[in-house]
Amino acid sequence: MIGPGEFLIPEAFEGTISLFALDQKLSGVDIEGTAYDVSGAEITNDFPIGCSNEKTAGHKARIRIADGTALVVLTPGLLNHCAE
After folding, report:
1. Could you read off the pLDDT tens digit of each residue along the chain, which spans 84 residues?
2. DSSP state of 10
3. Whole-model pTM?
4. Distance separating alpha carbons of residues 50 and 41, to the nearest angstrom
5. Contact predicate 56/79, CB 8 Å
């Protein structure tokens, strides 16, 4: 669980990142270094838009939250390789 602030994901991590709002909503969410980066997003607890983002090894990634509490789930090795 993380609250307002910044969460750094290790550069060596490769897999899926999911971000779920534990409060009614997360405000000012920035996600960088993933397949689907966002800036200033709002994530609510009734619509899981933060689910199943991808990060490949060798790239830095970070999550910033301005307001709210989130559950971050890192699942190693679950990347969508169907497009390859």
Report:
1. 999 999 999 999 999 999 999 999 999 999 999 999 999 999 999 987 888 999 988 889 999 999 999 999 999 986 665 544
2. P
3. 0.85
4. 10
5. yes
Beta bridge partners of residue 53, listed in sequence order: 17
Q: Is the dihedral of CA 79, 14, 37, 50 positive or negative?
A: positive
Q: Is 59 helix (H, G, I), strand (E, B) or coil?
A: coil
Q: ∠ CA 67-57-11 to the nearest 5 degrees?
A: 55
What CA dihedral angle connects 53, 36, 5 and 43, to 10 degrees? Answer: -80
Q: Which one-letter DSSP state was computed for residue 51?
A: S
Amino acid identity of residue 9, one-letter, is I
Q: Please provide the distance, in angstroms rounded to a whole number, between the alpha carbons at the two ends of the chain.
A: 33
